[in-house]
Amino acid sequence: MINNNDVCQTLKKMTLEEFAKILSGYNEMKINNEKVIEKYEEENKKIYYTVDELIEVYPFFTRYNINKAIQKCGLPYFTIGNRRMFNKDDVEKWLEKESKVKKEKTKYDI
Fold first, then answer.
1. CA separation for the pair 93, 97 (Å, rounded)
2. Which of 71 and 107 is assigned the larger pLDDT?
3. Checking phi first, is residue 49 left (phi over 0); if not, alpha (psi -120 to 50) or beta?
4. CA-CA distance, 107 to 88, in Å (whole number)?
5. How many of the other CB atoms lie within 10 Å of CB of 91?
6. Contacts 24+ apart (CB under 8 A), 64-68
7. Residue 54, C-beta contacts closer than 8 angstroms, at least 6 positions apart
8. Do residues 51 and 69 touch, judged by C-beta distance below 8 A?
């Protein structure tokens, strides 16, 4: 266990340059931690849409098409209370997958 008296004695013996080095190391560490936190927050920003917002962002969707896509094609969503919420990344991945499936189906149609 660290004793406050020992810390005080050590600080009194320390020169100003040594103390400045410790502080600069602390500041660098603090800045690095802040950068890591900012990067993590940017990477993990998730955008969620309600049904109305999804229709605004993707105009080819209607309420009927969304319900049909959920039931038959597995459009990913979750509910908060009685509201359906859609993660932007999940919707984009689903759209890519579905467009590939449709291209493969129509590719060999005569």
1. 6
2. 71
3. beta
4. 28
5. 21
6. none
7. 61, 66, 86, 91
8. no
Token code pair at residue 87: 């993660």
Confidence of residue 44 (pLDDT cuts 50, 70, 90): low
Number of C-alpha atoms within 13 angstroms, CB side, residue 76? Answer: 12
Give the separation between CA 39 and CA 54, rounded to whole angstroms.
27
Instruction: Give the 3-state secondary structure of the chain.
Output: CCCHHHHHHHHHHCCHHHHHHHHHHHHHHHHHHHHHHHHHHHHCCCCEECHHHHHHHCCCCCHHHHHHHHHHHCCCCEEECCEEEEEHHHHHHHHHHHHHHHHHHHHCCC
| pTM of the predicted structure, to 2 decimals | 0.54
